[in-house]
């Protein structure tokens, strides 16, 4: 069985490499996820691939009860908190601009600045496991990893590999021309967020099992400080276009200023710490301006990297990047 799983993983990797290989004159197709109808899990068959897809769906929507810290078998305790993938990737990973998984399978392998290398979908999944889930990496040949990849592959049915995905990730909003204000954010949190996530950010537990109906936003059972949601620009764009629950990108409840301030407040609270964050973004010039931990290529303070204003940091990094490129061009070959 182990050899079968390893072979299946290898097949997925080979298919992904082949699908993303673009020959001369290849054109990239746009796929609008805001108009895309994702496949229905109820229609998945009971063949070997279908069973793996259904297990991946279960892992994605009920993570804590499948691989969480309360599992009786210690070998199955991959997640370090009781969150579920669906807590951030809404509608089981299909909601546009709420970090959907739809079409993601065909985007890998891809270069990722955080690792400073071309990485696979499996590497990206393990990044979430170690950061958002505050846990440990899944073995590449494990049933769980194969299931996650299978589910994401199935969600991408009908979407060409390498397509430009409209509705992927988060819908960016303009960087604030000021520093975010956690004190004002606390007021927004109290008025808008606390009803679901709790006054103390503790979330609301599910009626049964180990998971949450509404996840904690800080504290020991939340994402750690290495997660993407701990970056202000990313988090503000996400909450503006997906929160409160039921919000969609085309009918936001919060203004951009409220989103910045409320996530500055959330990120000011205590959360788990991830070790060795200093190895992230080996090319410091590619480090996002709102990364809240060093080392940095520039001389701006950690506080400004957390709260902004980000415009001056971005301008400095662009100038440094241009200077580095010019210097490289002038070097003898």
Outline:
With about 325 residues, this protein is mainly alpha-helical. The chain contains 11 helices and 6 strands.
Give an overview of the whole structure:
The protein has 2 domains: 30-166, Cytochrome Bc1 Complex, Chain D, domain 2 (Orthogonal Bundle), CATH 1.10.760.10; 171-314, Cytochrome Bc1 Complex, Chain D, domain 2, CATH 1.10.760. Helices cover 39% and strands 5% of the residues. The protein has 333 residues and is mainly alpha-helical. α7 packs across α9 (256-267). β5 and β6 form a beta hairpin. The radius of gyration is 20 Å and the shape is globular. It is built from 11 helices and 6 strands. The strands form 3 sheets. A two-stranded parallel sheet has the order 1-4. The chain has a two-stranded antiparallel ribbon with strand order 2-3. The termini are far apart.
Kindly list the characteristics that best describe this protein:
single chain; 333 residues; mainly alpha; Cytochrome Bc1 Complex, Chain D, domain 2; 2 domains; two-stranded parallel ribbon; two-stranded antiparallel sheet; 11 helices; globular; disordered N terminus
Largest sheet: 2 strands, parallel
Amino-to-carboxy terminus distance: 51 Å
**What's the domain count?**
2
Shape: globular
SSE topology sketch:
Blueprint: H1 2-20, E1 30-32, H2 48-61, H3 63-67, H4 90-93, E2 110-112, E3 117-119, H5 121-130, H6 143-155, E4 164-166, H7 182-197, E5 204-205, E6 212-214, H8 232-242, H9 256-267, H10 302-307, H11 311-330
Parallel strand pairs: 1-4
Antiparallel strand pairs: 2-3, 5-6
Helix pairs in contact: 2-6, 7-9, 8-9
